[in-house]
Amino acid sequence: xxxxxxxxxxxxxxxxxxxxxxxxxxxxxxxxxxxxxxxxxxxxxxxxxxxxxxxxxxxxxxxxxxxxxxxxxxxxxxxxxxxxxxxxxxxxxxxxxxxxxxxxxxxxxxxxxxxxxxxxxxxxxxxxxxxxxxxxxxxxxxxxxxxxxxxxxxxxxxxxxxxxxxxxxxxxxxxxxxxxxxxxxxxxxxxxxxxxxxxxxxxxxxxxxxxxxxxxxxxxxxxxxxxxxxxxxxxxxxxxxxxxxxxxxxxxxxxxxxxxxxxxxxxxxxxxxxxxxxxxxxxxxxxxxxxxxxxxxxxxxxxxxxxx
Length: 308
Fold this sequence. Notes:
Layout: E1 2-10, E2 13-21, H1 24-45, H2 53-60, E3 62-64, H3 67-82, H4 92-98, H5 106-113, E4 121-124, E5 129-132, H6 145-159, E6 165-169, E7 172-175, E8 185-189, E9 195-199, E10 203-208, E11 213-216, E12 219-226, E13 231-234, E14 237-243, H7 246-259, H8 261-269, E15 275-280, E16 283-286, E17 306-307
Antiparallel strand pairs: 1-2, 2-6, 3-5, 4-5, 6-7, 7-10, 8-9, 8-17, 10-14, 11-12, 12-13, 14-15, 15-16
């Protein structure tokens, strides 16, 4: 098997695929299918694109949706419920305000928060129908769509017979079978306690202000919004989550950042197959099994999350 590397830009982030295939033709065909899957998900779930399926649902408030979007919304609601709303797919109104790079006043914030709440989204599995029950509530899948796209891209590779592969979509990683002769993919994690995770057939996601942050009035805020306040988390909140898939890891990385180290660790530990390390400033906590995922020859590397 030969190693191949492909890179494109998708969903506002760099996307790279590392795979092992018998020849260049097979590798290129598989990668093309994976990138096409990501592009299709972006076209469906982007809140930036006026014609996307998600944007149309936000405007109509009720619609018959595609299998892909229904699946993501279903997963999102389960995670929202399981994290007590620390992850919330109905943060659209708060996200729109935060994109203006300002902190809303108290009255405006109350108005914004009145339009946030995962219980306002209802799904009908029998009809594959989604309904937003309260006017003004807007869906935003920024905390889950990239992880889902990475998983679906990995599945597209597998359908082409490529199972030894890695998909990295802006730091959300979906990992398949390891490289030939290796125990797993080596995923470097930076910051305090940096090292290398050795993983196979898992998902990994990082969240925090290491790469995306905003400074207002001399205070640094993360791009991650707290559903309880509608404002970005104070600087220093970071998390790395390992889960059975990247979809779950993506959403949980956001949730545990919001919850903070202790509550975040407790929540992550309650979900089968999930391990996490959560930090807020100098305060850090990790699940009992996180250290066991580190390679024995782990070395300090500066990249928050990358696979090789």
